[in-house]
Specification:
The structure is a homodimer of 462-residue chains. Chain A has 462 residues and is an alpha+beta fold. The first copy, chain A, has 2 domains: 154 residues, Creatine Amidinohydrolase, Chain A, domain 1 (3-Layer(aba) Sandwich); 291 residues, Creatinase/methionine aminopeptidase superfamily (Creatine Amidinohydrolase). The first copy, chain A, contains 15 helices and 16 strands. Chain A has a 4-stranded mixed β-sheet with strand order 1-4-5-6. The longest helix of chain A has 24 residues. The radius of gyration of chain A is 24 Å and the shape is globular. Chain A starts with 13 loop residues before the first helix and ends with a helix. At the A-B interface, strand 2, strand 3, helix 3 and helix 8 of A face strand 2, strand 3, helix 3 and helix 8 of B.
């Protein structure tokens, strides 16, 4: 019996892309230009990193066409693509021509060689330096790669219009995001099943990535698969899985059109949580539930964050790690000692959606980041709207650096029961992260197929 | 019983790195500066492609230290590294400090902030545009990313010295290359075992990549795993495995220090070659054997290439696809119809080693690429030396573009038996590629653990 072929990602229908372009044109006068960028050289010009088109281009064109540009102006939308290169065909096979793209996308498509200068056009700074240089030459003004957090005045209205569109996902975007979440679920199941004491972190990470690439997707970000859960963005993968320890896996897929998932689970290497691991796992899960209970259109995301911080604090007090009233400890920012990051962020075409524009997307006009330990790493402070996708990802971490920073003799120092904390030495770090679509009446968890309760995780590992 | 942890890559000993730096200093007067480069942003500044240091830096320092620079001058060697960032430690965990690197490498290490301008220093253009901009500011002259094929006069002696060193691998380099080949062998075995009719190419590619990343390595280049073997550098992976077809897999690992393997195998999806597939497979294997028979210190690589071309031609004549004398057909460049690329290339820190310097590494002084169809894609024309590593990778491909280009009524047109060729319709493309270390008396195949004969491949798939 032949195995079934893996389901392959569905594309965004051209009508949905046309509707996005139309909505953008209604909001900002053109001309507007969006470059897709080129693959970046790795160790020599012909050995490039896997190509990933610029996100704003993907939002409006839906296909990762290398070296292309979209122009929107009074005359409508025109896509400019590289001319067919018969020499390249020998090496890369037949690729879609301008005519093919025009048919597929229902869009006027021309050769990029025919695109002249575009003085006065607005754009958004790309990540690819070659695309930035190309835009500089076409627009006759400097466009610097990665400079979206310090926009030229001409580009600000375009950024604000794009943010308004991309903040609230249309049905086609939700379909892409569901696909990414679905494959991410398969990756996490593969990770749970691949876990065995004595293996390296890299082996579990490989099993998870394999599930993603087998389904025609890429990793939306460098996977974190670590026995050092206390390192928030751990990059090493040589650690050996200790049977008494936990493994934290923060891994998400990205569709070929660039739409991302971002999910974290933490599981016991042995397949069974120890009593202390289970207690702390349940505490983080309680903090996630408290956050989710606040998610609904109209709620302020900052309050979602504070609810999860407060819930975790109460659990930590309940477990006897901190002594005193939760009220007072919250004023001291005591939660930041164990949970120093924000409850989550926007998710869409980017895993931190539109972070290329700095805090402009994450923070509502007039709001800025707070400097206090509870909120300094919060990436989102807006009122939620139906159709927004956010992560909800509280955590508990024993970070030696943070504990060492406590001032001896301070209120916090006296509140911390170090002996009790030491009993949780088999809990280095726990994070539980889901992708949550805001609705009018609450929310929908796109990553809901991934085991999450301690019991479901243990069952999946048996 | 706990599974055994995967063997982890060994590092190059500091003495070997010191010896390389010393040999380079003896050949070119300093000051010389080598930048390691920074990770390149993918879709926003904090979401980067997996960092890969510049190859020349890796050759001399052996550790992928982001944002670092090596300076060689009369005073010796100094490594400049980024200052410790306590803020980053929260996210990425403790990283080696300047003192740690100094201890590990036995080298003077300073903060990069202490490095002033270096007027008159020679360098080699990096691939990373940020590193190029940094070098531009330090050297006070333009350094353009990816411009190694058009060097400034000041940098030519350095390029020639680096080429002289890197052409012939020292024992530490061979150890790295062996490790890469060893893990690559495991990847190809995983690919053979994962192949089932009805799966997608991506599933087999994922199984191969998983074996590489589970061992702490990366892919040295974007893997080619395709049912369209006739597309030389196929990039798509959605093809479904036809039980009657072949699967071509060109996949190689790279150690954490950047040393590469590059191996291709072609196997039948069903696990059994058809008679036509076996005949043509044996023809390509014969062409590889003819090439290998020429490999020895002192031989000219161009003659290795021509031997494989000639052997394949004779097989194709023997199979009745081309009629006439091999002598005459060779003069017509008839082999290029089915085998349009070179027999291989240099292999080392880059999969096309030192191709960042254009043809300067591959072609001996005074030699240039030939324009004829047999040799235009030959990447190497030097006398072989003991310690050089080259690929030997003949192939047979039915490329519609090339066959369509035959002039009607020409000698080649009359020589081609299209009916006979049509009988080989289940052979789209076959390539057999090994990594071959040149010795005084012949060669050693580093990738020898990978099944290669039709019989061994079938046995591995059972």
């Amino acid at each position: 019996m032949a195995p079934l072929e893996a389901a392959w990602p569905r594309s965004t229908p051209p009508e949905a892309l046309a509707a996005r372009r139309q909505r953008l044109r209604e909001r900002v006068p053109g001309p507007l230009v969006f470059a897709s960028g080129w693959a970046r050289a790795r160790n020599f010009p012909h050995n490039a990193y896997t190509y990933r088109a610029e996100s704003h281009f993907l939002y409006l064109v839906g296909r990762p066409i290398e070296g292309a540009a979209l122009v929107l102006d009074e005359a409508g939308a025109r896509l400019y693509v590289p001319a067919d290169d018969p020499g390249a065909r020998l090496w890369h096979g037949p690729e879609p021509t301008a005519e093919d793209w025009s048919r597929e996308l229902g869009l006027e498509v021309r050769s990029i060689d025919s695109l002249g200068s575009l003085p006065g056009a607005a754009t958004l700074p790309p990540q690819d330096p070659s695309a930035a240089a190309w835009l500089t030459s076409r627009l006759g003004r400097p466009v610097v790669a990665g400079s979206g957090d310090r926009l030229a005045a001409l580009d600000v209205p375009l950024a604000e219009a794009m943010i308004a569109l991309r903040l609230v996902h249309d049905a086609a975007a939700v379909d892409q995001l569901r696909q990414a979440a679905h494959v991410t679920a398969r990756a996490h199941l593969a990770g749970l099943r691949a876990t065995r004491p004595g293996l390296r972190e890299a082996r579990v990470a490989a099993a998870m990535q394999a599930e993603i690439s087998a389904h025609g997707m890429a990793c939306a970000y460098e996977p974190i698969v670590t026995v050092h859960g206390e390192v928030l963005h751990a990059r090493h993968k040589h650690g050996v899985l200790d049977p008494a320890g936990l493994l934290l896996a923060d891994v998400g897929a990205e569709t070929p059109e660039g739409w991302a998932a971002d999910v974290t689970r933490t599981w016991p290497v042995s397949g069974r949580f120890s009593p202390t691991q289970r207690d702390m796992y349940d505490a983080v899960l309680t903090a996630q539930a408290a956050a989710l209970a606040k998610v609904v259109a109209g709620a302020r995301y900052r309050d979602v964050h504070l609810a999860s911080q407060r819930a975790l604090l109460e659990c930590i007090v309940g477990l006897g790690i901190l002594r005193g009233s939760a009220e007072q400890l919250a004023e001291l920012h005591a939660t930041a000692l164990f949970y120093p990051h924000g409850v989550g962020h926007l998710l869409g075409l980017d895993v931190h959606d539109m972070e290329d524009l700095g805090d402009r997307a994450g923070y509502a006009p007039g709001r800025v980041r707070q400097a206090d330990p509870t909120s300094r790493f919060l990436r989102l402070d807006r009122e939620l709207e139906a159709g927004m996708l956010v992560t909800i990802e509280p955590g508990f971490y024993q970070i030696p650096e943070l504990i060492a920073r406590i001032e001896p003799g301070s209120v916090l120092d006296r509140a911390l029961d170090r002996e009790r904390l030491a009993q949780f030495s088999d809990v280095r770090g726990i994070r539980i992260e889901d992708d949550v679509l805001v609705t009018q009446t609450g929310y929908e968890i796109l990553s809901q197929d991934i085991p999450k309760t301690a019991r479901d995780i243990e069952a999946a590992m048996r």
